[in-house]
Amino acid sequence: MMENYTNVLIHAARVGELDVIRELLSRGVDVNVRDEKGYTPLLIACYNNRPEAARLLLDSGADVNAGDYGGNTALMGAAFKGLPEIASLLISYGANLNSQHGNGGTALMFATMFGRNEVVKLLLESGADTDILDIRGQSAFDLAMQQGNHEAVTLLA
């Protein structure tokens, strides 16, 4: 029975159904449950740009640094999608700016590679480490150069 609740909670997080999220959490559904890919409700809410749902989950004890089975965190998802409001929310709840996924990538690298320069600025202002290298030995600066992301090159220089 709880497994059905897990799916309902993850769906509610995806679509931002705050009342459903509150009800399920009040029934004892684990705020950090995972689906088959390792996504938590917080990861899903953030990736789908649901800041109110993300805040509710965080206030209910969601692990801000939980990663999916590939090591991707909510902050990485926000960086990849270019969601500064979500990124800012996660940072305010103590998200680890320098977490690395399975290939060594960080939120800053995602933001740089995909031209999400508002998120690049936010991460740099928040103290993200620019010296981290991925498994290929590339830094965020190297990735900005390769992508021709001139604004990020300037920000990272």
From TrEMBL:
Annotated InterPro entries: Ankyrin_rpt, Ankyrin_rpt-contain_sf
Keyword annotations: ANK repeat, Repeat
One Pfam family named in its UniProt record: Ank
PROSITE patterns found in the cross-reference section: ANK_REP_REGION, ANK_REPEAT
Classification via SMART domains: ANK
Ranges for the ANK repeats: 4-36, 37-69, 70-102, 103-135
SUPFAM superfamilies found in the cross-reference section: Ankyrin repeat (SSF48403)
Name of the molecule in the record: Ankyrin
Organism: Dyadobacter fermentans (strain ATCC 700827 / DSM 18053 / CIP 107007 / KCTC 52180 / NS114)
Organism phylogeny: Bacteria, Pseudomonadati, Bacteroidota, Cytophagia, Cytophagales
